[in-house]
Design a protein that fits this description.
homotetramer, alpha/beta, Rossmann fold, 2 domains, seven-stranded mixed sheet, 7 helices, amino-acid biosynthesis (chains A, B, C, D), oxidoreductase (chains A, B, C, D)
């Protein structure tokens, strides 16, 4: 496929380029804060950058009438509304986490929240020291399923992203944890989402929809 | 209730006596290798001791026509048959683990085994150095749900019982772990099972049946 | 030995009574908020209760001219001064943690702080939901050796006390963690401290002094 | 510096090339099973490949009279002898683990083995499913310091390399663990070793010598 990429020069941008080129997809339009370049009409547009870029991403998607895959974290309510609106025209996949594992954990939490209703629950998330937002979008995403439990954010070294959910009662402790070993898993998730988006009809999707449709 | 206890002088036996007396239940019959004493007909008989004791437990249950709660690990097929037979006469609750948490984990594994079909899975279990059997009954119980994955057994110090299930793919690691903080949780589980058993009809039950009926 | 105990009816008080009686020591004086009873002159006085009790403990130690073992956490500077003063008259052992393991970890941190000078360091501590103070005295005790690193406090279920120290650089993570499996270890530590205190000369000691002298 | 690399086409080989080129060092001689190419005399030769390659590496080092940095695991006694012999002519740095963190842990274990003499100790190591040797060279390296404790090897997914040392007594558990987040840390260690080797005199060194001399 031919794809456009917002935030092509950032860390996630580079990772997406590497993974997409492994699968022979072509980068035909690229954008960042200081640079915009369109060689050809893209089949899809991806944005894993920052909230400030979103408005332009939405405009590009409208202009080219192509689906959008959005992995930006820390979006506000009005940003989500903007994506919802866009999804009337084209398929939009939005998620704060594009890893398969985190989405399996999300499903476990939703299926088992009743079983854990009498347990104390706390989330602890670990990310590299340069991460700007805290708590992480993923921690908030997981916390929602549990009725907004407390989140503890640790920023240290180069940790890609660890999330632990701790459940404790008087005599037992259960831990459910996820560790990303590289940024590549998110780029692979973005690819799955892109493949899904270009072959479906206009609507608003999450990465979980992508995973459940794929099966 | 009035209860009989096989293995009353062992570690789990003492724990059961402590918890049951907190709830004002009366120990009316007690047995171990060298001692047998029946003061009154019990309403239920419990056995969390060793496989060798099982035959007598079954006979006691038949004699008093009272339900049996069995938490002995390391039973053989013929032992299970014996319990199955007994369950035609009286309610029998048998499980290799009477903790609420382990049974929640068992349910998670059964519900999500398809999601994990492409992940490598390994179980690691940690118990005190005096534990005789390895792997633990609980590890085997969890492993079954996953198609018998490899189990690593670690015996050290006074660890009551930790179980970890590790799922790994190329870029992610998920861990689901359980830690028992004392033997008391198993005695509390035995109490739940006993309360269930004396108010139900003759059949073979597991601790999961107890938990799901209770809800 | 004959011992006096301040806070005899609390959780740590009961644990101390159990361990000391295993070793045939006699409780001859006991105190709590509503009760004071002296049967005989004690050889030593122990206090693992709360800061409010300390003043009376110090007075008792002076009155009986017997050593004091203090495990109360959350003491203020003026409390420490009071203990320092007392230590001119009798041996005083004061520590915020009487476990062997925590003190080994303290020694590791002090010996290796230079090696970790370029790593990001964070402490995470887990305790039962009823614990009143946060961060724990032990976390503060460990943090001091590292130049006061950030501490994250998690309160959940019945966790006795877990402490993790996380070290991260760009490509590696080291974790050093300690888990107490019961309150008994602290009572065993109190016993070691008491045995040490009754056979030494008046001075101020920590539990680390007890451990290093014992070897 | 100008360097020669044995095993240039393997995973570690590629990582070394990437890191060394970041620091503007020049690859002037490269070797693998099917290819050998020498453009210029190297200042140093590195080998992080497999035991079968070692003989040629030693010959190259003799021929060019340049230092050797060896990170191959699973070497036999006679291989080590060969390196010892070589070290009479040129500086040789040999280690089964070139990460800073593992070497700090090694130092901790050696300094504190007496404190842990009454604890049960077990090592658990986790590596990717394609790793050929088990236990890992690093686990053996750590185990030696503790009098050869049991090692449990888990092979799953794409885990780069996790090592845990578990210490347990009757009431406490201490864990000391290390996680490599990428192969890059080993290549950075190889660079440190190479810089050290080209500026020192002929002798046999370990990576720990490199780290302690650097300080």
């Amino acid at each position: 496929m031919k794809y456009g990429l917002v935030g092509f020069s950032g860390k996630m941008g580079k990772e997406i380029i590497e993974v997409f080129s492994e699968y022979c997809h072509q980068l035909v339009a690229k954008f960042d804060r200081t640079h915009r370049e369109v060689q050809e009409k893209p089949d899809i547009i991806l944005d894993f950058s920052s909230p400030e870029a979103l408005k332009e991403t939405v405009e590009l998607s409208k202009k080219f009438l192509c689906p959008a895959v959005i992995g930006t974290t820390n979006l506000k309510e009005q940003d989500i509304s903007m994506l919802n609106e866009l999804s009337a025209l084209v398929p939009v996949v939005y998620s704060s986490n594009f890893s398969v594992g985190i989405n399996v954990i999300k499903n476990i939490l939703e299926s088992f929240k009743l079983e854990f209703s009498e347990w104390d629950i706390e989330i602890i998330e670990f990310h590299h020291r340069k991460k700007k937002d805290a708590p992480s979008g993923t921690a908030l995403f997981l916390s929602e399923s549990l009725g907004n439990v407390p989140i503890h954010s640790i920023r240290a070294g180069g940790i890609f992203g660890d999330h632990k959910i701790l459940f404790a009662n008087e005599g037992e402790v259960i831990e459910l944890s996820h560790r990303a070993m590289s940024r590549k898993i998110f780029a692979l998730g973005a690819l799955k989402a892109a493949e899904f988006a270009i072959s479906t009809k206009a609507s608003f999707y999450t990465f979980r929809d992508v995973l459940s449709k794929k099966r």
